[in-house]
Amino acid sequence: MNAYLRNINKIEFVVTDACCGRCRHCSQGEHPARGDGIDPALAAETVKKIAAAYAVVTVMAFGGEPLLHREAVYAIMEAARQEGVPHRQVITSGYFSKDSETIRCVVRRLADCGVNDLRLSVDAFHQEFIPAEVVKLFAAEAVKQGLPIRLQPAWLVSREDDNPYNRKTKEILGEFSAMGIPVHDGNVIFPEGNAVKFLAEYFTGEAPANPYKEDPYDVTCVSFAPNGDVLGGNVYQRDILDILDNYTPQEGRL
Ligand code: SF4
User: Fold this and answer.
1) Phi and psi (nearest 5°) for 230?
2) How far apart (Å, rounded) are the C-alpha atoms in residues 14 and 17?
3) Does position 199 have pLDDT exceeding 70, yes or no?
């Protein structure tokens, strides 16, 4: 086994860059409203190969908005379930359709493919551009169908800091909590992407570090870009196990 990857325990997919949000805290910056994503069959095959070789405990799908490219989400989660990966997580803004029948079907497919930790990003930043009423349709359907769902807010400066964004976030969380949905700790916004452009005034002291940065000498998470890029290789061009076997920290783009 590649010594730099001996502690791999997680696989994550940025399923697509597409997103209808325009969040001013988004660490990824601008997004196209529509676009392609990772191939569902290739992503599923990749999950199976990694899970067979490493002690993977979490498979996560996010974006962009992953449910704009939901066939890949279903395929990834189904593969994770078949491989016995215990923690199967999707992070979504809940905004991919305004049609209640489509929303109902998507929730059913998410439940059927084995998602057991649905994280719904709701806060002052998401709801500046994403209509809360549509997201509530999705959240209510998840509750109704018994899909495990939690709220995942983004906090500015800290969870405790008293600023207009955090105050608005608490108000929004209250509305969703009233639907019986628990609140996860969420995350503190770090200065990357749009946050640097639009929230610079809040990063005057010691700014929060990006918690998702990996140590290239001890990689724990295999992260795929929508175009298949991963650890200095690309799964459309090379087998994932070949990429992992030949990874070196110099080649890794973490
Ligand atoms: S934070 Fe999420 S919902 Fe908002 S623009 Fe970025 S990817 Fe889209």
Assistant:
1) -160, 125
2) 7
3) yes
64 CA distance to ligand 1 middle (Å): 6
pLDDT at 132: 97
pLDDT digits (tens, 9 = 90+) for 73-113: 999 999 999 999 999 999 999 999 999 999 999 999 999 99
User: pTM value?
Assistant: 0.95
Ligand 1 centroid–CA 65 distance in Å is: 7
Q: Over 50: is that where the pLDDT of 247 sits?
A: yes
Confidence label for 253 from pLDDT (cuts 50, 70 and 90): low
Q: Distance, CA 114 to ligand 1 centroid (Å)? A: 24
C-beta separation of 140 from 179 below 8 A:
yes
Model pLDDT for residues 111-123, shown as the tens digit of each residue: 999 999 999 999 9
Residue 252 has a pLDDT of 46
**Encoding tokens for residue 148?**
């495990």
Query: What is the DSSP code string of the chain?
Result: --GGGTT--EEEEEEES--S---TT-TT----SS--B--HHHHHHHHHHHHHHS---EEEEEES-GGGGHHHHHHHHHHHHHTT-SEEEEEE-S-S-S-HHHHHHHHHHHHHTT--EEEE--STTHHHHS-HHHHHHHHHHHHHHT--EEE--EESS-SS---HHHHHHHHHHHHHHTTT--B---EE--SSTHHHHH-GGG-SSSPPP-TT---TTS--EEEE-TT-EETTEETTTS-HHHHHHT--TTT---
- Does residue 23 have its Cβ closer than 6 Å to ligand 1? yes
Domains of the chain: 3-114+132-137+191-200+207-245 (3.20.20.70)
